[in-house]
Design brief:
It is a single chain. By secondary structure, the chain is mainly alpha-helical. The chain has 1 helix and no strands.
Amino acid sequence: MDGQRPLTKAEHDAFCQLMNSENQRLSDEDKRQNHRIDELEQNVHQIGELTTAIKTLAVNMESMVKEQEQQGHRLEVLESRDGEMWRKVTGYFITAVIGIMVGFIFTQIGM
């Protein structure tokens, strides 16, 4: 036998116990790694959902900004309309007063 002595049962059992403990250690490490991988997959999934939600929020915000701009323009038109009406009414009133005064002056002069 090539100058090697045969293994005894005790040596064989010790080797089997060492292999079993190493296999158990590797199995435990695999479980820990699988658990970490599962957590990472969940985190990646949550990040994907968050990204989608942020994109939707950005689109909604953009449409809200456009709507606010449109409302601002409409408000400016409405506010200027009231100002224009007031200026017209004031102009008509002043024209009427001046007309009355000119008429009164012409009647006093005899025209």
